[in-house]
Amino acid sequence: MKRQIIFAILILFLFGIILYLPFIGEKEFQGEEGRRVLIALQMLENNEFLIPKLFDKPYFNKPPLFNWALAGVFLITKNYSEFVARAFSSFCLILASLFLVFIWQKILIKSGEEFHKLSLTTILLPGLIFLTTPEVIDKAIRAEIDGFYTMLITIAIYSWFYLHEVKNKKISAYVVSGIFLGMGILTKTFQALIFFYLALLPYLVFKKRLKELLSIHHFLGIITYLGVFSIWAISVSLKIGIKPFFTAWINEYLSSAKAQEMSFSQHFKAYTIFAFLGYSPWLWFLISYRDKNFLSFLKNNPLFYNLAIFSSFLFFFSYLFHFMFPGARLRYMLPSAGGLVFLSTLPIYHYMKQNYLPKIYRISILKMLPFINLVIAIVFFIYLSFLHYKPEPIFYIFCFLFLVLNLYVLIKNFSSPLAIFSFLLTIVFLLKFLYVTFYYPLHQKKMNHFRNAAFKIATLVKNKKELYLCQTIPHHLIYYLKYKYKLIPKIYYLKDCSTLPKGSYILFKEKHIPQKIFKDYKVYPLKIRTKNYLLVSS
């Protein structure tokens, strides 16, 4: 049994590595990646870890745990590259998938399954589904908080379910989950508690055990997660007070509630079209919960039934909660992905066990889906012929594999659950590689905005190995100038730009520059992606 578990772990780990790591260092930083990496690097540079800072200015929009973890990775590897920063997110989500497999195999054993008779696919079901969920893939290849945060919340929520509902260790359930919830708070504020209680509260109501919220076990859990958070919060408040970071967090919450970062139409599309795409193909298996035979199977297996109820509350209430806030991005609900994973694992497991596949899946997935894929592929090739861009040869190899797979499935009359699962896994795998082999080289050729800008600024500055920033902190640009390529070793931030340092270069945002600067100094205009900057020689 131990050898089987070790082998399963190795297979899942290797699958995650192969799925996530290739090409992740090719594209330059985007979104919040530069900010996260820059804070971690400045922690190492200044040996100041308690208070996250950007050029001596405290940054409290997010607590520091992710920055600590990323700084630790940089310290251990001695490598600050995009690959290492993003690989950390990949590693975290692979760990989350291994944890889900651990929970699943414990539930299988508890439900009476003979573990040595189970196939490797059956054991790895939730891990493979988790790793191949498009929303998870998207966060696994970014150096952002979401992958690390999702790992913590997934462990917190399902460690409670395992210890409380499977092992009946109530104190351990709340304390262990409390530790990871506390770490979640230290990663992304008190939002971490939302996921836990969106699953726990309705589950206890459904089970008619709501009084448990007043139990000593629950209070121990509260003390635990507040205690973990307080270790940092008290230390910070002794230095600068408690107000700065609580004010920053409240402003973050209000920003999401008021939709300051996105319009309602963008929000609506995110939680309809993009949610459907982001959680497909595994979302499709929720149709099974209308299947009487499958529902009968659940009701005859109390552990599976409880797992389904708990997971449905986690996923659906998280979706509804975030849908209600117009500023909530789709990635905000990613920590609830574990709920969907188990909701889709259960019907697939049932069909594999029965070696039976309902007609709706045989038609929609084994006939309609490959046909639609082939049509989309043909349309894409027609579109590609009009582009002034020639993809790398490896892209065409994956295109060929994609076409062959869909043609093969369309021609053959597959009807087994294993066939449908293998087909969906392979489709997601190929689509991911089609994306990175097409878009990443294109990005390098056409959209290398910050890398190119870094070299342009270095050329203008020449032998003057220092740069001043006037009331602007372009995170990605600083990363490439100072840390990745080491073009300008000294970069300083100016709060007051009324008096410019003599014989230096100062970077302004176009909207911040006084008109007199154009008269008194030499100015170089810089277009960096969508923003206009001006490099001033004093």
UniProtKB/TrEMBL annotation:
Signal sequence coordinates: none
Keyword Transmembrane: yes
Membrane topology, as annotated: Multi-pass membrane protein
Keywords annotated in UniProt: Cell membrane, Glycosyltransferase, Membrane, Transferase, Transmembrane, Transmembrane helix
Chain ranges passing through the membrane: 5-25, 83-103, 145-163, 175-199, 219-238, 268-287, 307-325, 332-352, 364-386, 393-411, 417-442
GO molecular function, one term: pentosyltransferase activity
Pfam hit, one: PMT_2
GO terms under biological process: lipopolysaccharide biosynthetic process; response to iron(III) ion
Ranges of residues in domain Glycosyltransferase RgtA/B/C/D-like: 61-232
Localization: Cell membrane
GO CC field: plasma membrane
Record's protein name: PMT family glycosyltransferase ArnT/Agl22
